[in-house]
Design brief:
Length: 308
């Protein structure tokens, strides 16, 4: 199956200037290559200035690139064929404040050659049915963001490009948003999502893409990146009443807090042997938590490796 998005050896630089004096060009992207299959959700991570926005603008056909190849749904980015199959949601959406949510969606549906009567169905999918006939000027930022999400669903796009899409959403709305993305992915839509909220994307994406200094320094599933980073696994062992001292003696390499909770750390390959040592203590152990490296830990590891 042909990937929905293919980027090969992509390079983009911006000319530098300081007043009348030209300075060295800024390399925004350096030989970036990746693919995104249909139905897959990829999280694009990186610090400010890493090249995320530049990559998204190139995929959308908003700016040209210097070298490399980009294929969006089998077409050149920005071409009529690509635009009909791609939808975009920016971090801060803007709509006419005098229009209602329904009127705004009917307008966009008409522009795309779709039946305007779909407006209410789209608003229902993002939880805006009760506010559909209110003016957008009365909406909160989170509600406007949901109008934007409804707009991206017009025409059943094959690729969704989302830039900080949950900005302004409350926790319940964020959960509903990712549920909606799960449904779209199940229907075959590829999703490229940029976010700084790593705890959100950790469990709701299939692949992680980490940009740093314009380079793709890491990509893969969360399990793949954990294995590559080889960061320590943490274990929290809670002793049964009266057994704190015994646990401390059995694991002198650990550290205990005032409540007796024992903290241990080990490499991935040492996890099972360490668990075996803990279980041998039997009733002396009241509870045990195994905490793998988080996406934030992994992101920091690969970014720092690149000097950030």
């Amino acid at each position: 199956m042909t990937p929905t998005l293919t980027i090969s050896r992509l390079t983009k630089a911006f000319p530098g200037s300081a007043g009348r004096q030209r300075i060295q060009a800024v390399e925004a992207l350096k030989q970036v290559s990746l693919t995104l299959e249909a139905g897959k959700r990829a999280a694009l991570l990186g610090h400010n200035g890493a090249g995320k926005s530049t990559m998204m603008k190139i995929v959308l056909g908003l700016i040209p690139f210097d070298s490399g190849e980009v294929s969006v749904c089998g077409a050149h980015p920005g071409s009529p064929a690509a635009r009909t199959r791609v939808a975009y949601l920016p971090e801060n959406v803007a709509f006419h404040p005098a229009l209602t949510g329904e009127e705004q969606l009917r307008h966009y549906l008409s522009l795309r050659g779709e039946d305007p009567r779909q407006a209410m169905e789209l608003l229902a999918r993002v939880g805006l049915t009760p506010a559909a006939r209110r003016r957008i000027g009365t909406y909160s930022k989170g509600m406007r963001q949901r109008v934007g999400l409804a707009q991206t669903l017009i025409g059943r796009p094959r690729l969704l490009v989302l830039d900080e899409p949950t900005s302004g959403l409350d926790p319940v709305s964020r959960r509903d948003f990712y549920d909606l993305l799960d449904g779209l992915a199940a229907e075959g839509t590829a999703i490229l999502l940029s976010s700084h909220v790593l705890t959100e994307v950790e469990a709701r994406t299939d692949r992680i893409l980490i940009l740093s200094g314009g380079e793709l320094v890491a990509e893969g599933t969360l399990a793949d990146l954990r294995a590559r980073a080889a960061l320590p696994v943490s274990l929290l062992v809670r002793p049964a009443p009266g057994y704190a001292a015994r646990l401390a003696a059995a694991f002198p390499e650990g550290s205990q807090d005032g409540d007796g909770l024992l903290r241990l750390a080990c490499r991935q390959a040492e996890k099972l042997p360490l668990l075996a040592r803990i279980t041998m203590l039997g009733s002396a152990v009241a509870d045990l938590d195994v905490i793998p490296p988080s996406l934030e830990d992994i992101y920091s590891h690969f970014s720092r490796r690149d000097g950030q």
